[in-house]
Amino acid sequence: MTEAIDIVIPWVDGNDPVHSAKRHGFNTGSNEENLEDVGGSSRFTSIGEIFYCILSINIYAPFIRKIFIVTDGQDPMIGEEISRIFPDGHIPMEIIDHKVIFRGYEDYLPTFNSRAIETMIWRIPGLSERFILMNDDFIITGKVSPEDFFQGDSTVCYAKMYLTWWARLMRLLRPSRNGHKRISFKDSMVNAVDIMGGSRRFMFLGHTPRALRKSFYEDFFTGRDDVMIRNIRHRFRHAEQYNSQELFYISEYRKGRCNVIDTDSRLVYLKPKDKKGYIDRKLAMFDSRLDAVFCCVNALSLACEEDRQKVLDWVRNRLYQNLRPLP
């Protein structure tokens, strides 16, 4: 019997007035909390990406046992449309509230911090041992198999190997603006390296699905409550936080059980840029690469209407040409 693999997708609709009011109620009004790298509005804006994310999983990864959507009292309301598209059945979905994964740690709720939420997702009741973490702006655009994520006892990590000393130097030299030094994605991985006792190199994770194992987190956080709380105590993103997936990959790499695959070999990353023809060039490049099966449409809400429509049309065309799960 094939071992089950679940997918977990943290999701928020920042346009929801109830959620928006809650977020602003816990915002102290400091300049830092309103910066985009900490708690800016684009971190919470949803324009329906999760529908395409889940549609893509059903089409291109039908081996997935269950999809868990982790939210704060919200519902993306896509079940009816997914059922209409797949009348013969689709991958089951379950909404998991933050209160469920933060049980026993409710004092740290509400949280508006993806790093805090990702630290706790292994606590989802009924989650399979092997699972995949995806952002709602990740879209699978070609057929994948379990071996794209797990290979025997090894886990696949889509990343680039990066020198730790160089990452530290870049963080040190990064200029401050109005007293704030931007919190980068890479910083959280360097922090994870420190927690794991240091390393000459680390995996600079790409914007791709991340294969993980629940038992690692069960074992790692046992007796390390202080380490877990360090990540969940911040309602908004903070410079001391670490990337919880990096903890796992460092551990597996040291054991010889981490198969690192260069991110660029499988991913096309789309992020709005004020450059004429940028989106057209990116989409044309993606269409020319049959090996690229992961797409991240990061911060699409910030794109101009024309570019946003081009991306959405491309995604629809890519997915709707295969409206049945591939064998």
Layout of helices and strands, plus pairs?
Elements: E1 5-10, H1 17-26, H2 49-60, E2 66-71, H3 79-85, E3 93-97, H4 98-101, H5 114-120, E4 130-133, E5 138-140, E6 150-151, E7 154-163, H6 164-173, E8 176-177, E9 180-181, H7 185-195, E10 201-205, E11 210-213, H8 214-221, H9 225-232, H10 244-254, E12 258-262, E13 267-270, H11 278-287, E14 294-297, H12 305-320
Parallel strand pairs: 1-2, 1-4, 2-3, 7-12, 13-14
Antiparallel strand pairs: 4-11, 5-14, 6-7, 7-10, 8-9
Helix pairs in contact: 6-7, 7-10
Tell me about this structure.
35% of the residues lie in helices and 19% in strands. With 327 residues, it is of the alpha/beta class. Helix 11 (278-287) links the parallel strand 13 and strand 14 (294-297). It is globular and about 45 Å long.
In short:
The protein has 327 residues and is α/β, with parallel strands linked by helices.
Helix content: 25-40%
Elements, N to C (H/E): EHHEHEHHEEEEHEEHEEHHHEEHEH
**Low-confidence runs:** 35-44
The proportion of strand residues reads 15-25%
CATH homologous superfamily caption: Spore Coat Polysaccharide Biosynthesis Protein SpsA, Chain A
The total tally of domains equals: 1
Strand order of the largest sheet: 3-2-1-4-11
Radius of gyration: 19 Å
Determine the number of helices (DSSP H or I, runs of at least 4 residues): 12
CATH topology: Spore Coat Polysaccharide Biosynthesis Protein SpsA, Chain A
**Average pLDDT:** 88
How does the overall form come out from the CA principal axes?
A: globular
How would a crystallographer describe the biggest sheet?
Answer: 5 strands, mixed
Structural class: alpha/beta
Q: How many β-strands, per DSSP?
A: 14
